[in-house]
Specification:
homodimer, 4-stranded antiparallel β-sheet, alpha/beta, 7-stranded mixed β-sheet, Aspartate Aminotransferase, domain 2, 15 helices, dopa decarboxylase, N-terminal domain, globular, Aspartate Aminotransferase, domain 1, 3 domains
């Protein structure tokens, strides 16, 4: 694919690989490519079957010396890239938690990339900042979240890259609140063994040793036991340690367990510790009024995050983090060099989101969220999420009705955890066989020490018949 | 814009705001919108002139209940959003460091969003991982970087969200290397007062107190003085502290000063400290063989990062970070819960990039970089960067030839720092007047205690005549 000579016409101008007209031409081709992909993705094997090194082996080892025609590049998408894609946008994708998307979101990415803004400061694109603030406030209304998360008070929302980033920022704000008064070595954080790996990763990042993150016992439903939390806090205080952070999860990754947020918040309040709630996946359920139990206790917490890029039809990255009080967050994350000073920031009348997270530079992520929320409308979002939950509940029923299988955990929303009664090896083999067909993709976890299949029903184009067909496939491949 | 009733035909299906055909239609409209934007952006006022709150005031306070027609949304881009955009893609944008882009990169974002992969693990989209590894290796060749950064040895590259993230990861890897043997309180990091604010931010994040980041004296050219570094290290060791991290900058944000990397690496090596080089903006210059002085000393360092999203025609986010040894980085950032286990990872035969940075989820960022490197080719990239440098050098000449002005720092590449001899107030007023015309946008810094104008010549569509016109504007508005 690499030519040894400069291309003949059209002659390239230095600095511009495409004129606006060339962009128009190839942009249209790319839209067609994506539309065709969305049309055929259902029929592709969900999990890529390439071997390690296979994709790379199909590509030139060195960069080309001269420009290549854009048509060649698009053609290579089909031959070199597609075989190596695991199709997260397939309606038969039931693995992990989905990263669902939608046409309006993809178009939002296109427009945001075309504008090419860098919204680190209000002044560097006021619309990027103000639309982000408005979208966060819209979500407070849409999900019926506590008013303390509105930007009009001392709190507010910000778009983070993901729930891991939000957890890390919450840890930093929590540390900031006790710092100066306390040495880092005395701090203790608390979460459940079922919490996302990002809590441990974040704790390490901010300088805690692993033993400074206490994993509190869970109950039979894999939810944190608040009495055990209270006891752990008491013991740590008695031993001269300083509880400073509690992480609750609404919808754990393994089993969708829902920690008792209100009771945990009470313990945190008494200990003067920050409480953060990670609702990365399940939080989106609150678009349905009947599913707002996922919000229980949020009126008592310091920070909360969920990912529109998981279950709200918005491309990665798009996590929304809310804080009840933005002061500790900004105190932890503000560094103001001269070269970023400007009149608007100095006036204090604007938000500079660079002080709300780790990176300095910022893409215009709010744009795609605006496109999505308007294209669906509140009713459209609720209908879509409600369907996912209904189909998952139907699946849970089919599992319960098959004597070979058992549910491995309650299924409060759209994740169903189940296992064949034949033991770990049978389940491991069953998962491999199902995924090996290419007709569906699910993943596993370990619950109560046993290998467990997980099926998350939340892809944008998934319909009831996809869930049914996948269950039939599982039932067919499972030992009698 | 919010309707009180459900829309009449086309009826919406739950879960899908757009069919592939509707995506096709609106995707084409969006491509037209972006193409027209690129055609007219040159004539728009570069710095947005909206007042705080103005953008938000033009938008509905609440999310819509029912779906809105996509045509309405695109129309609102012109009326509600564009006035609030500061046009980073204007050829008259000379502020900060540019965040340049290109048609192939924008199309790459579109395709990556359409594929909607989540490449946290090799298995969750092998092509995303393998293309990323290949692009990092291509860049080693393209920039003539040390071979130790190739993925085929113990080192390798990874795409980070930005240089701030890369610096933070380098700090974490450095801390990991000494941890266990040393308490956090004894660690000392070193950089120059001219280093990017992310070094201080990163040091705070990993748990250091501000006094644990030593700001080492600079010379008359604003580059770190390696003798002062050696002296500071000696004094700290003598006082029982543990030097563990040195951050050098190639092309500081204020003035493009280039720290003496080789001499600093020597000091770091003797102290057994990690040395990271932040070449966020200037690193891209190495696409030109005659500008490879920006690579001096890199063969001696532990990690290096630069941003294709600044000066290599690739949309945000796209920073490339290289390490000579990936083991400490992975040791610092690996957390492996059961629900992410898979055969490929267990085999050790693949890279799982989630262990190379802070987030878990990953967009397919390598795709746009592949599109860019192929669309330009090595010669095209070199020609574009070479032109920027030539025009900046011409600008430096015009400044030097005008008796009212003086250069405030050497201009080794495409950033020119200068000031009117009339003092801070004159320069502050001059900057406001130039930016107030809307015909160009530049920013400022403070060098040697004096207010200084900065002009970074690196936007994709900037041509010599834009630089000339901006200099004429400055000269015209400046006091005689």
């Amino acid at each position: 694919m690499t030519a040894d000579h400069p291309p003949s016409p059209p002659e390239r101008r230095a600095g511009e690989a495409m004129t606006p007209d060339e962009f128009r031409r190839w942009g249209h081709e790319a839209v067609e490519w994506v539309a065709r992909y969305l049309e055929v993705v259902e029929d592709l094997p969900v999990l890529s079957t390439v071997e390690p090194g296979e994709v790379r082996a199909g590509l030139p080892p060195s960069p080309p010396r001269w420009p290549e025609p854009f048509g060649d590049i698009l053609a290579d998408l089909d031959t070199a890239i597609l075989p190596g894609i695991t199709h997260w946008q397939s309606p038969n994708f039931f693995g992990y938690f989905q990263a669902n998307s939608s046409g309006p979101s993809v178009i939002g990415e296109l427009v945001a990339a075309g504008l090419g803004t860098q919204g680190m400061l209000w002044s560097t694109s006021p619309a990027a900042t103000e639309l982000e603030t408005l979208m966060c406030d819209w979500l407070v209304e849409l999900l019926d979240l506590p008013e303390r998360f509105l930007s009009t008070g001392p709190g507010g929302g910000v778009i983070q890259d993901g729930a891991s980033g939000a957890t890390l920022c919450a840890l930093l704000a929590a540390r900031e609140r006790v710092r100066g008064r306390e040495g880092l070595d005395r701090l203790v954080a608390y979460t459940s063994p079922e919490a996302h790996s990002s809590v441990l990763k974040g704790a390490r990042v901010i300088g805690l040793r692993d033993e400074q993150l206490q994993l509190v016992a869970t109950d039979a439903r894999h939810a944190l036991d608040p009495a055990a939390l209270a006891e752990a806090v008491r013991a740590d205080v008695a031993a001269g340690r300083r509880p400073f952070f509690v992480a609750a999860t609404v919808g754990t990754t393994s089993s969708h367990a829902i920690d008792p947020v209100a009771a945990m918040a009470e313990v945190a309040r008494e200990a003067d510790a920050w409480i953060h709630v990670d609702g990365a996946h399940a939080g989106a359920a609150a678009v349905c009024s009947e599913l707002r139990f996922v919000n229980d206790g949020l009126e008592l917490v310091d920070s909360y995050a969920f990912d529109p890029h998981k279950w709200l039809f918005t491309n990665m990255e798009c996590d929304v983090m809310f804080v009840a009080d933005r002061a500790p967050l900004l105190a932890a994350l503000s560094v103001s060099p001269e070269y970023l000073r400007n009149q608007a920031s100095d006036s204090g009348a604007v938000i500079d989101y660079r002080d709300w997270h780790l990176p300095l530079g910022r893409r215009f992520r709010a744009l795609k969220l605006w496109f999505v929320l308007r294209s669906y409308g509140a009713e459209g979002l609720a209908a879509a999420v409600r369907s996912h939950v209904a189909w998952a509940q139907a699946l849970a029923g089919w599992v319960a009705d098959d004597a070979r299988f058992e549910l491995a955990a309650p299924a409060p929303l759209n994740l169903v955890c189940f296992r064949h009664r034949g033991g770990d090896d049978v389940n491991r083999e069953l998962l491999a066989r199902v995924n090996g067909t290419g007709r569906a993709f699910l993943t596993h976890t370990v619950l109560d020490g046993r290998f467990t299949l997980r099926m998350s029903v939340g892809q944008t184009t998934t319909r009831r018949h996809h869930v049914e067909a996948t269950w039939r496939l599982i039932a067919e491949l499972a030992p009698r």
